[in-house]
Design a protein that fits this description.
By secondary structure, this protein is an alpha/beta fold. The protein has a domain of 150 residues: 3-Layer(aba) Sandwich (Rossmann fold), CATH 3.40.50. The protein is 32% helix and 14% strand. The strands form two sheets. It has a six-stranded mixed beta sheet. A two-stranded antiparallel sheet has the order 2-3. Helix 4 runs antiparallel to helix 5, helix 5 packs across helix 6 and helix 6 runs parallel beside helix 8. It starts with a strand and ends in a 33-residue tail after the last helix.
């Protein structure tokens, strides 16, 4: 969905009332109380407030970087991604928000209809593309390949925000193909800001004692299994082992 301008009085990372977002059909819906434009940094002390406010200055959008929010469910990843998207819209930038599952479904449908490149160009249009919920749902066969084609098309041309409850070392399992996962991380970690959130679910804060210990755990999501070498800016050579053809489920 396209995120479109909110009332001037709304501040995505400060005090404010509920706001409206318009979807791709320009049908308004209200943000629920869970999405009101404030963030309780005291509940997630692992977060550096100044670092988040620096991201809200949107330099990463101008530099075409990728921002990764990693952490367990309920720790505020989607909230922060949406808040930064709203700030970008208020600054006059175009923003598109989608989940990974919906994004891949859209690309797969376009591929079946012979319109894949047209759809990739569509997702390359916004200055900022937000991809939410990486790792929550299984990726369909060939979906990782489709996502790679989009990431490769946006590489150094447009900013992205990605949220995930899975560490980078697990992306081979998430996308069902370690070769595709490595190629994705090569692009997405080259010019990247990684925000690791360690903490409990904000949604479950009133019922924490009822949850199993592994759900209440504040375990750190593993960092990348490898340290991508520093490279000069510029499009990398195509991975000779990576096929850009895919089979949709």
């Amino acid at each position: 969905m396209w995120i479109t301008p909110l009332p001037p009085s709304l501040s995505a990372l400060g005090e404010g009332s509920h706001g409206s977002i318009l979807n791709g059909n320009y049908a308004p819906y209200r943000l629920s109380s869970a999405w009101k434009p404030t963030f309780d940094f005291t509940f997630q002390p692992s977060l550096d407030r100044d670092r988040i406010l620096t991201l809200a200055q949107l330099g990463f959008v101008d530099r075409h970087e990728a921002v990764h929010f990693l952490g367990p469910p309920g720790t505020g990843k989607s909230h922060l991604a949406t808040a930064l998207g709203v700030e970008a819209v208020k600054a006059g930038k175009s923003v598109y928000f989608t989940t990974l599952a919906d994004l891949i479904a859209s690309l797969a449908r376009s591929e079946r209809e012979g319109r894949l490149q047209e759809r990739i160009r569509f997702f390359c249009r916004p200055s900022l593309l937000i991809v939410d919920e990486i790792g929550y749902l299984p990726v369909v066969h060939g979906g990782g390949n489709l996502f790679f084609q989009l990431v490769n098309a946006r590489y150094e041309r447009g900013a992205m925000i990605l949220t995930s409850n899975r560490g980078f070392a697990e992306w081979g399992d998430v996308f069902g193909d370690p070769v595709v996962a490595t190629a994705l991380l090569d692009r997405l970690l080259h010019h990247a800001v990684i925000v690791q959130i360690e903490g409990s679910s904000y949604r479950l804060r009133q019922h924490a004692e009822l949850m199993p210990e592994h759900v209440r755990s504040k375990a750190l999501i593993a960092p990348p299994a490898f340290a991508p070498p520093q490279k000069p800016r510029g499009r990398p050579p195509k991975n000779p082992q990576l096929s850009l053809s895919s089979t949709s489920a």
